[in-house]
Structure formats: structure tokens, C-alpha cells
Write a structure and sequence with these properties.
Elements (H helix, E strand, L loop, with lengths): L2 H28 L5 H25 L35 H14 L2 H4 L3 H7 L11 E2 L4 E5 H9 L20 E2 L8 E2 L1 H4 L3 H7 L9 E5 L10 H18 L1
Parallel strand pairs: 2-5
Antiparallel strand pairs: 1-2, 3-4
Amino acid sequence: MSVMYQNKIRQVNGFCIVIYRFQYNMKPSFNSFTNKSTRVSITLAVSISLIFSALTIGANAASSEPQCTLKGKGSEVAFPSLKQCYIFTKDSCCTSVHDEAIQTKLSKLVSDSCMDNFDELIQYFCLGCYKNEGSYVNMTTKTIRICKTFAARVWSGGNPDTDSLNNPQTTFDNCGLDVGNGTEMSIKIQSIDYKNATAFFNQIKPPFFESFKIDLADDDCYDIARPFLYSALALIGLLAGIITLI
């Protein structure tokens, strides 16, 4: 794990410890409040202020503001709004033209009737629109760092277990994958044509990054779900505090 993520996790853990110590040290005094709801309200007031600080840390963990590969400048609100990669509209590294090209490539890879079933695949193809994609794209070595847990979700249809990366999966078998020009030989069946995730990611790459190598990494890598880890840790601290005082 990188030093940056270690520091962020330490900070969030610190907030949780502060919440716990407050509850532990103050519990004798809190016993004077016969009203349980009063005790919980006081805990909430203190904890929520710390939670907001922890959530800020979670947001900042993925906000080093690197330069966008596709636009050559920092991320900004996309206008017109993105349609395919709409989750990145508020802070985007791509334009509506890039977004339309991504949608076209996706529509070619999987049928319209299947596309809505593969959220992780869409997120993978929308890499170029993610506000911090520049942190994980190395223009010198032509390498993209994709988190193994995220790659596992793409490869196995939502399962983050990285063990699945080494084994054939059937996620796209019923739909098929068109990796060519629509000819019969270009239709791939995942469990037959790709024996592991490495083979899959070597052939199927995000639009605008077809010449790049995909590096499946443990940290400092693309996974839009990762920043929410810090929020989850903070909320655990809050819940533990409420349980302690009830």
C-alpha cells in the first residue's frame, strides 16, 4: 500500500479513535442523563462533526488534480452533460465528443440489450472521463494502472475477489463480445476465448487508450469505488459510538 493511502487510513482511524475515547471517557457522566435519546443526541453531535472531516479526507484522497489525458488540462464540469459516462459529468476529464465515442465503442462491443447489465464494464470504458485518470495513466511507458479489485468486478460481473482473475468466467457469455468488425470470427465467448483476466484486458481496452498496456495493480490505481472506503470507515466509527452509549 502506498504512503498516501497509509496516511489517509491513519487519519480516518484517528477520527474513529477520538470518537471512541470521547464515548469511553464521558460515559460515566452520560449515565446522569436518564433519557437515552439525550445520550445518543450528544454522541451524534460530536461524532457527526468528526465524520464530516473524515469524509473530506476520503474526497481528498482522490483529488490530486492531475492533468487530464484527453483534454490536456484539469477536470471540470462537462457541458453539455455526458450521456454514457454521466457519473463523471460534475467533474470530468472528457468532453461530450469523447463521451459519444465511448458510447459508440461500447455499443459495438456489447449489444444494447446487454449493456445495462455491465456497470463495471461501462466504468472501465469511461476511464478517460474520470477526474483523476491522469494519476493512473503513464504517458511515458504507455501503461494504465487498474486496481485488481476493480478488474475482478469487471471480469466476474461484480465480484471483487481477485482470485477470479486467474480463472475463466462466464460474465459475458450470454451476450458475447464483438472485438472486431462484426464478422463471425470477431465474436468472443468469455469463458472460451479468455482463460484469465490478463488476456481479456490485453485485448479489450478503454477508448482512446488502445495502444496502452493494462497493469493490474494493488494500489495507486483506477477504481472509482475506492474513495468510499474512507467514508465507510468513518461511518463505522459513528455506529460504534451509538452502540457504546445505548
